[in-house]
Amino acid sequence: MNETYEILALKYGENTARKAADNFMNPQADDHASAMPIDYYVFVIRNANRTILVDTGFDHKEAAARGRKITVEPIEVLKRIGIAPESIKETIITHLHFDHAGTMDQFTGTKFHLQASEMAYATGPCMCEPSMRVPFTAEHVCQMVRHVYSGRVQFHDGDGHIAPGITVHHCPGHSKGIQAIRVATEHGPVVLGSDVAHFYANIEQRRPFFITIDQEATLRSYDRLTELADGKLRNVIPGHDPLILKRYPAWKPETDGLVHKLDAPRIG
């Protein structure tokens, strides 16, 4: 029998200087200069039996190297809600871009779940091209290689089972091996889309994010996200949209704007 879960979005940073032209592959002339901020999140899936982390974000050192600024490191947000990093035994890495795999070394007791195609992509011939490796940080990829050799990585090839009620699904386009997560909740399935769709607008308007290695695959992956959500697009959570914190309630009153509850009915 499937279990159900609580899902929390933990915001650890933002970039308020972004414009629409930064977030769409083909920005439209009438909106390309409009403000379109981006938020940085990690996600927690948990119930009485287990706590699973989705992605590890990035730290202040990586932020400085890339000209970004984060409010707090992901590990500190976890601690604020009572989750010790050493207590996390399973972590799903949706893909190996710098803002999703940047603090893996802080989670010393976890097993990492990754698509085999993402590992092959991040260590393969495409990384000889400077433009293709921009979203990756070599040290993060090398850390994952070391985790492979220490027996801490479980690879998935397409659809994969993580725990009762939690599955991962290959949804390529933004990166070659990016995966989404389907989670059973009391209100039905919720799909954590990660950067398969950065914003609601990407998937709702079918306008891919500007970092896209395969536009056709991205559009098919949008369809896959909707299918995984039992046809309900409103139950798909994008990877970076500030609207997440407006469409879902705060976990507690004091976590408004920091930690919000995604297994609750959507607001509005």
Your description of this structure?
- The chain is an alpha/beta fold and 268 residues long.
- It has a domain at 6-165 and 241-261: Metallo-beta-lactamase, Chain A (4-Layer Sandwich).
- The protein is 22% helix and 24% strand.
- The chain has eight helices and twelve strands.
- It has helices at 60-65, 74-80, 116-122, 130-133, 138-149, 200-204, 215-228, 244-247, and strands spanning 6-15, 38-46, 51-54, 90-92, 111-115, 153-156, 160-163, 166-170, 179-185, 188-194, 236-238, 259-261.
- The strands form two sheets. It has a seven-stranded mixed β-sheet with strand order 6-5-4-3-2-1-12. A five-stranded mixed β-sheet has the order 7-8-9-10-11, with helices on one face.
- A hairpin with a 2-residue loop joins strand 7 and strand 8.
- It is globular and about 45 Å long.
- The two termini are 31 Å apart.
In short:
The protein has helices at residues 60-65, 74-80, 116-122, 130-133, 138-149, 200-204, 215-228, 244-247; strands at residues 6-15, 38-46, 51-54, 90-92, 111-115, 153-156, 160-163, 166-170, 179-185, 188-194, 236-238, 259-261.
End-to-end separation in angstroms reads 31 Å
Look at the helices and sheets and give the structural class: alpha/beta
- Could you tell me the strand content as a percent range? 15-25%
The number of helical segments is: 8
Strand count, sense and barrel status of the largest sheet are:
7 strands, mixed
CATH superfamily of the domain at 6-165 and 241-261: Ribonuclease Z/Hydroxyacylglutathione hydrolase-like
* Strands in their spatial order, largest beta sheet: 6-5-4-3-2-1-12
CATH topology of the domain at 6-165 and 241-261: Metallo-beta-lactamase, Chain A
Low-confidence stretches: none
Give a count of the beta strands, DSSP E runs of length 2 or more. Answer: 12
Mean pLDDT: 95
Architecture per CATH nomenclature, i.e. the level-2 architecture of the domain at 6-165 and 241-261? 4-Layer Sandwich
Instruction: Tell me the helix content.
Output: 10-25%
- Approximate shape: globular
SSE series: EEEHHEEHHHEEEEEHHEHE
